[in-house]
Amino acid sequence: MSKVVKVSEDTHSKLTGMAKWGEPLDQVIQRLTTQKGLEDVIAGTSSICFIDGTEGRLLYRGYDIRDLAAHSTYEETAYLLMNGKLPAENELQRFSRNLFAKRPVPPEIISILLELPKNCDAMDALRVCVAALGVFDDPMYSLQEKASSIAAKIGTVVAAIHRHKHDWTPIPPKDDLSYAANFLYMVTGKEPSESDTRLMNVFFILHGDHELNASTFTARVIASTLSDIYSAVTGAVGALKGPLHGGANEKVVEMTSEIESSKNAEKYVSNRLANKQKLMGFGHRVYRTMDPRAQILKEMAKDFLSTEREREDFQILLKVEEVMRKEKNLYPNVDLYSGLALNHMGIPTYLFTPVFAVGRAPGWLAHVLEQYSDNRIIRPRAEYLGSQGSKYVPIENRATSR
Fold first, then answer.
1. Residues sharing a CB contact under 8 Å with residue 347, sequence separation 6 or more, in sequence order
2. Domain ranges of the chain
3. What CATH number is given for 248-344 in this structure?
4. Whole-structure pTM over 0.90, yes or no?
5. For residue range 246-297, what is the model confidence (pLDDT) as tens digits?
6. Residues 159, 357: contact at Cβ < 8 Å?
């Protein structure tokens, strides 16, 4: 006999959608809570981000990602994520001024960065700098000011990491540029065009949040111990570094380079699939259709492609998408077209994941603040599969291993 399980209306709706024919709700919960990798397990509640994996919808605080990509900016979307609503004009101006004022990083952070090997992984450098920011940031900042400081400075830090790799002097931020334009300026040394600034804004918006992904969940777990916000974001950076989370778009660029021509794409994909090799940029734990972020970047590509090489790379990706849909029924995720956009803006491949972190920082911070606001330490259980009742044997009586 099934027991009564009390859940919220929204959670009940989600669980019902995950049930097999005739499966009682408590059995759905039992099945889901023992899923490897916590797949489809509901691990908490949040009002920040909603994903409909069946319909391919992504909402920030109720606003569709397509509307935000078409009309919003990094600053406005960051405000929305971190404050729970779209800002009025004076609120956005005040928020933007606050970000501008906090963009310069303490000189001690630059000194630490310059001591790191030039060939160290860019995400390792970012992790070190974010952790150090917790030591050298203004100790009088409130929690909200610390969140704004991290969001403001992470772009400056990533640009400085890039410059350090080439033994170039870091470029300080300019007060008269928007966040997106300023980031491109600090990376490339040139003020970007309006179209590139718009593309950078869209990239940041699309990566702003994505529910309880690995890095965000890591940040919330750390915050749930009531550790500080810098530790939470440092942990998120560490999680994002993994190639199964933040590094997939780099692999897509490598794949495009290997294919070289759209004429080779079908054979390349077929060979990879025959050898049971994974192709990055496809499939998603949540989406069962095309990732809406991938669709937006795909549509924008038709406007920003400016060289024959870019146009050929786009044709390669289109062909790979077609073959993967036909052969494996897999749809693109955001990584398939994001590398093309980043390379177009002059961002080198090794900087892709740190730039992902810049875009995701407002989402991390929003989740950390939400966790603090109604906290209970996150401490799940594991289903034990080991032996029980083992008898202790003194070491002199144990069999010698070979």
1. 187, 355
2. 86-239+361-373, 248-344
3. 1.10.230.10
4. no
5. 888 888 999 999 999 999 999 999 999 999 988 888 978 788 889 999 999 9
6. no
